[in-house]
Amino acid sequence: MSRGGSGGRTRVKTGRGRTVSSNRWLARQLNDPYVKRAHAEGLRSRSAFKLIELDERFGFLRGVRSVVDLGIAPGGWSLVVRRQVPKAAIVGIDLLPVDPIMGVTILEMDFMLDEAPGLLIDALGSAPDLVLSDMAANTVGHTQTDHLRTMGLVEAAAEFAYDVLKPGGTFVAKVFAGGADSAMVADLKRNFTTVKHAKPAASRKESSEWYVVAQGFKGEELRNQRAAERNLE
């Protein structure tokens, strides 16, 4: 499949049935230092380092007791939480199958189903103080459509966070095209003390992904206000 190249890089042999773009992707994976480090440390994916870097900057894992991981596959983020906060209760959900993680409850189902939020909280056994979302819609190759589909997932994740977070809790989510749109940012700022965007070093430079980190959930008063607004609709 591959052979050593100059400068320590791995070169990919042309494989029967593989396209040029597939060979490029494979070469990038084989030579990506974050992929190699994730493999060496048993973290399942390079995205684990995105969460590590975000936490180093914002410190949201410190003292957490209960965590919901939306879009858990392949499990890298929950592994990071498990290692850094061993006593935290963690529940994750994904359409894709995920290999078991000791101490983590995993639901293999669509988060967008009506019953999913309730099942997550039932499995967790309490309100979370951290909601993580690394969800992204499957791409169709049309930039605007892909962005809208992913932002729909982000908005659903934010609504879930508004409904279930403990006061003072944190919401971390993957967004695209430089961050959440202005309407969503305004809504986050209504519900959290601070809202920041960041692009961790582990996120490839050519990728359009960013992360939004909303900390200091304002709690029951705003939750009750949101419920009253929904009842008026």
Molecular structure report:
A hairpin with a 5-residue loop joins strand 1 and strand 2. It is globular and about 55 Å long. The protein is built from eight helices and nine strands. The N terminus is likely disordered. The chain folds into two domains: 30 residues, no CATH class; 188 residues, Vaccinia Virus protein VP39 (Rossmann fold). Helices cover 41% and strands 21% of the residues. With 233 residues, the protein is α/β, with parallel strands linked by helices. Keywords: Cytoplasm, Methyltransferase, rRNA processing, S-adenosyl-L-methionine, Transferase. GO terms for molecular function: rRNA (uridine-2'-O-)-methyltransferase activity.
Largest sheet: 7 strands, mixed
Report helical residue fraction.
40-55%
Any guess at the CATH architecture of the largest domain? 3-Layer(aba) Sandwich
Total domain count? 2
| Overall 3D form | globular
- Strand arrangement within the widest β-sheet reads 5-4-3-6-7-9-8
Instruction: Tell me the name of the CATH homologous superfamily of the largest domain.
Output: Vaccinia Virus protein VP39
Pfam families: FtsJ (PF01728)
Binding site for S-adenosyl-L-methionine: 75, 77, 94, 110, 134
Family: Belongs to the class I-like SAM-binding methyltransferase superfamily. RNA methyltransferase RlmE family.
Organism: Sphingomonas paeninsulae
